[in-house]
């Protein structure tokens, strides 16, 4: 037996002594194992089989009603020094955290089965991929991990061959919000999660491993673990450029990852390929470019609002082999959520008879878990061991005013500032006030496993001799006109903006310089057939100098909040923009 397997066995034994399960099951990831687990969950009432004719091999899971989303206030990063976690994370000293959560784990698996889930984040033979093992007492978590990661025998074999693996210990516990924690110990490559069975709290390969722990590893190993979709854009000449894009929630990330080109573009030969919809690991290649993999193997997407109009590719993949969580059901046992044009719900997400007075049939954060291979636009290059080369990085947010449709950063340092200054208006999808601008650098606010100031410095460090870094852009699909209506149609038409970006990468499109970056002139964008008025286009691309002066002041205060951790180069870059805006006002 190799030392890695010995280390794994020893850890499983330790956990079993602490949690006292009745049985231990090592998951091999096989179809037979999945069938048996599904049958067990149906028998126990954890899963409900959906209409076998319309949705073969699809199941509904209803979570506890107080366990329906990530819990940021209970999510901790436990570094030896508080400052290393930064003001962007909730922190507890590792020894205190361990004592607190191990007391919860003591005896928690009595009467339950302990599942050992070996998994690989990324293609099984990719040097960029990393392995982990999740120990859980939830068969629902096993079923989801099987879809979301490369889980089972092949991952175990890789763990046997190579160095350290990430240890994730999870128990649903009593599903009591008062006895719930999601703790990260980056120095020990360990995650401990107790008291939730939902999504990012429980599927430890996703946000916990692939972002919080991986961002920490990436910093020390010289790569990037990012909250980004990856999409391939094929032009009519047959060249494909890959774009990585970061957006805060409720900005249409999954829709952009699965975009369908507008009719004219489709006819001209444009194609869009989906590599990933949520997480991107990027590493510098021998050629100086950044090469990216999607560490996940599936999508854990929001169901409400997914329809043939907003995301036909997503809808097409949900017809078979899908786990739905917290959606409603129709009389003939089909899954249903708000935004579907057809069907009538008879049961809501809690299993009650549907009554609009109780709220929506599907929980607003209800989800589908589905293999990425079922997506019609799935890129075969998703499996490439070396990853795909990234030509452009896009940051975005939801801003009613001020922020133009698109601008290009002048260089990498400016691009890092653009990402660090990212902000979005809150929507009804999140708790708290609506329409408030919140900073969410690189869309990593809940996921960066260390001090944001150090994270900005890590991003800047990629700009070194020989690097051929992607161009960096910022987009805002959500600017509104004086009439309160969105100025830009969004969805498939966002390809027109991506087209300009890729022409900038090739050096074939024009742009006008401004203090905030380079913007397209109206003539640089293909707006054919959109019917936009010239004033609308002007407003979409307008730089409001006074508004930006206020914004750049607020960005300064935000950067200051990370104290001495914020790199001086970002302060200098911000000052340069402030000076250029001042110069603009004086000449106006
Ligand atoms: O993990 C959850 O509980 C839901 S949140 C989520 C799910 C999939 C992809 N991204 C997110 C997110 O919050 O960014
Ligand atoms: Mn996400």
Topology overview:
Layout: H1 3-19, E1 23-26, H2 31-44, E2 48-49, E3 59-61, E4 75-77, H3 82-85, E5 90-91, H4 94-105, E6 113-121, E7 130-136, H5 139-148, E8 150-151, H6 153-161, E9 166-171, E10 181-185, E11 190-194, H7 199-202, H8 205-221, E12 224-226, E13 229-234, E14 240-246, H9 253-257, H10 263-268, E15 271-276, E16 280-284, E17 290-293, E18 298-302, H11 312-317, E19 323-325, E20 328-330, E21 335-336, E22 345-347, E23 367-371, E24 388-396, E25 406-408, H12 412-420, E26 423-425, E27 437-439, H13 452-460, E28 471-475, H14 494-506, E29 512-514, E30 517-519, H15 534-540, H16 545-560, H17 568-587
Helix pairs in contact: 2-5, 12-17, 16-17
Bound molecules: 3-[(carboxymethyl)sulfanyl]pyridine-2-carboxylic acid and manganese (II) ion.
Can you put this structure into words, describing what you see?
This protein has 588 residues and is α/β, with parallel strands linked by helices. The protein folds into three domains: 3-47 and 67-222, Phosphoenolpyruvate Carboxykinase, domain 1, CATH 3.40.449; 226-296 and 382-587, Phosphoenolpyruvate Carboxykinase, domain 3 (Alpha-Beta Complex), CATH 3.90.228; 298-372, Phosphoenolpyruvate Carboxykinase, domain 2, CATH 2.170.8. It is 30% helix and 22% strand. The strands form six sheets. Strands 1, 4, 5, 6, 7, 8, 9, 10 and 11 form a nine-stranded mixed beta sheet that branches. Strand 16 (280-284) and strand 17 form a beta hairpin. Helix 2 runs antiparallel to helix 5 (139-148). The protein is globular. The chain starts with a helix and ends with a helix. 50% of the residues are buried. Bound molecules: 3-[(carboxymethyl)sulfanyl]pyridine-2-carboxylic acid and manganese (II) ion (MN). Manganese (II) ion (MN) binds at residues 227, 278.
């Amino acid at each position: 037996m190799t030392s890695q397997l010995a280390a794994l066995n020893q850890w499983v034994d330790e956990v079993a002594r602490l949690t006292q399960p009745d049985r231990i099951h090592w998951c091999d990831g096989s179809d037979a194992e999945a069938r048996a687990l599904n049958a067990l969950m149906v028998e126990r009432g954890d899963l409900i089989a959906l209409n076998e004719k319309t949705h073969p091999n699809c199941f509904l899971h209803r979570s506890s009603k107080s366990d329906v989303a990530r819990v940021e206030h209970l999510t901790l990063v436990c570094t030896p020094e508080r400052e290393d976690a930064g003001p962007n994370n909730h922190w507890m000293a590792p020894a205190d955290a361990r004592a607190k959560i191990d007391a919860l784990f003591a005896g928690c698996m009595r009467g339950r089965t302990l599942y050992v889930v070996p998994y690989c984040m990324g293609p099984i033979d990719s040097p960029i991929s990393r392995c982990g093992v999740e120990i859980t007492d939830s068969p629902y978590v096993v079923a989801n991990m099987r879809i979301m990661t490369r889980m089972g025998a092949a991952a175990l074999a890789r763990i046997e061959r190579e160095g350290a693996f990430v240890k994730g210990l999870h128990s649903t516990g009593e599903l009591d919000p008062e006895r719930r924690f999601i703790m990260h110990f980056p120095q020990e490559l360990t995650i401990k999660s107790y008291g939730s069975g939902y999504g990012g709290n429980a599927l430890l390969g996703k946000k916990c491993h692939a972002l919080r722990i991986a961002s920490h590893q990436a910093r020390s190993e010289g790569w990037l673990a990012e909250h980004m979709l990856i999409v391939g854009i094929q032009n009519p000449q047959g060249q494909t450029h890959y774009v990585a894009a970061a957006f805060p929630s409720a900005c249409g990330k999954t829709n952009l990852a699965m975009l369908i080109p507008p009719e004219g573009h489709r006819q001209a030969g444009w194609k869009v390929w989906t590599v990933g919809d949520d997480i991107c690991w990027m590493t510098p290649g021998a050629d100086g470019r950044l090469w990216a993999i999607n560490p996940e193997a599936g999508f854990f997407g929001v169901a409400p609002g997914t329809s043939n109009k907003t995301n036909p590719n997503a809808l097409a993949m949900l017809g078979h082999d899908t786990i739905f969580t917290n959606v409603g059901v129709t009389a003939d046992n089909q899954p249903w959520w708000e935004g579907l044009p057809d069907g009538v719900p008879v049961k809501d997400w809690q299993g009650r008879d549907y009554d609009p007075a109780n709220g929506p049939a599907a929980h607003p954060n209800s989800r589908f878990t589905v293999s990425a291979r079922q997506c019609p636009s799935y890129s075969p290059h998703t499996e490439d061991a070396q990853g795909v080369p990234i030509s452009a990085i896009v940051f975005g947010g939801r801003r009613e005013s001020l922020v133009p449709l698109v601008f290009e950063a002048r260089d990498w340092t400016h691009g890092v500032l653009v990402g660090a200054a990212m902000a979005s208006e809150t929507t009804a999808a999140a708790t708290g006030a609506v329409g408030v601008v919140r900073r969410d650098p690189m869309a990593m606010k809940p996921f960066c496993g260390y001090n944001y100031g150090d994270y900005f410095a890590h991003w800047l460090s990629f700009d070194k001799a020989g690097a051929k870094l992607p161009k960096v852009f910022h987009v805002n699909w959500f600017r509104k006109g004086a009439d309160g209506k969105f100025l830009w149609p969004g969805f498939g038409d966002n390809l027109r903006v991506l087209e300009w970006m890729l022409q900038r990468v090739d050096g074939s499109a024009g742009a006008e310089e401004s203090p905030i970056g380079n913007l397209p002139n109206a003539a640089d964008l293909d707006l054919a057939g959109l019917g936009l008025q010239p004033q609308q286009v002007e407003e979409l691309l307008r730089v409001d100098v006074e508004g930006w002066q206020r914004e750049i002041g607020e960005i300064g205060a935000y950067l200051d909040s990370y104290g001495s951790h914020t790199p001086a180069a970002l302060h200098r870059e911000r000052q340069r923009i402030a000076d250029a805006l001042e110069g603009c006002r004086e000449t106006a």
